[in-house]
Amino acid sequence: QVQLVQSGAEVKKPGASVKVSCKASGYTFIGYYIHWVRQAPGQGLEWMGWINPNNGGTNYAQKFQDRVTMIRDTSISTAYMELSRLTSDDTAVYYCARVWRAYYPTFDYWGQGTLVTVSS
Amino acid sequence: EIVLTQSPGTLSLSPGETATLSCRASQSVISGYLAWYQQKPGQAPRLLIYDASSRATGIPDRFSGSGSGTDFTLTISRLDPEDFAVYYCQQYGSSLLTFGGGTKVEIK
Q: Which chain B residues touch A37 with a CB distance below 8 Å?
């Protein structure tokens, strides 16, 4: 069965970077785009960007353009999202999610979420 | 950026009743590229509806979506206890994906 399993919770200091992993299983990793979405405590969902696991192509939301990097390692079917220059506003649960129809980004499978806490 | 405004913020209903949730876009959503998700506490969202009115795999037929342009609706008929959750709309008609702020459906 399709699964996206994310890395564990992180606590970071302001100004640091965090790297979250998303390991895919149960399907052909390179066949489906992976998007990243975050959710601040008690808040709604915020889209961050996507990576095409087939060729490594990316597209980031302008808000995160200068701070986010999305990469993948096809040998282990894993996508990564790295966010730099963290502030307290980056405290959130970060989700990876799979797009099930090419070019129509709705998400049929989600990771379990990774809580990133930014605190001094 | 297409801003999605969901209303009401909270809906208090009893099991068996019908919930009507609204999602209004700041500009027309191309080709009705709008989806609805359900999220329960501590869980990731679950896809319910895509392309405004198509149910995702395994979603009960008591969930239905409608609308076009800037006005979209999610209707949940015969509310089941497991349906009490937060619901989000999402548009994918533009390259900048956006979500609504959510509607909480709570037990009255």
A: 99
Asked whether residue A36 carries a pLDDT value surpassing 90, the answer given is yes
pLDDT tens, position by position, for chain B (108 residues)? 999 999 999 999 999 999 999 999 999 999 899 999 999 999 999 999 999 999 999 999 999 999 999 999 999 999 999 999 999 999 999 989 999 999 999 999
pLDDT at A101 over 90: no
- Partnered with residue A70 across adjacent β-strands are A81
Is there a contact between B88 and B36 (Cβ–Cβ < 8 Å)? yes
* Tokens linked to A54: 């087939």
Q: Does B98 touch chain A (CB under 8 A)?
A: yes
Q: List all residues of chain A from 36 to 95 with a beta carbon under 8 Å from chain B.
A: 37, 44-47, 59, 61-62, 95
Q: What is the pLDDT of residue A90?
A: 98
- Give CA–CA dist A13/A80, Å, rounded: 20
Do B97 and A44 lie within an 8 Å CB cutoff? Answer: no
Q: Which of A37, A44, A106 shows the shortest C-beta gap to B47? A: A106
Q: Which runs of E-coded beta strand occur in chain A? A: 3-6, 10-12, 18-25, 34-39, 45-51, 58-60, 68-73, 78-83, 92-99, 107-110, 114-118
- Residues contacting B21, CB < 8 A, separation 6+: B6, B7, B11, B36, B73, B74, B75, B76, B87, B103, B105
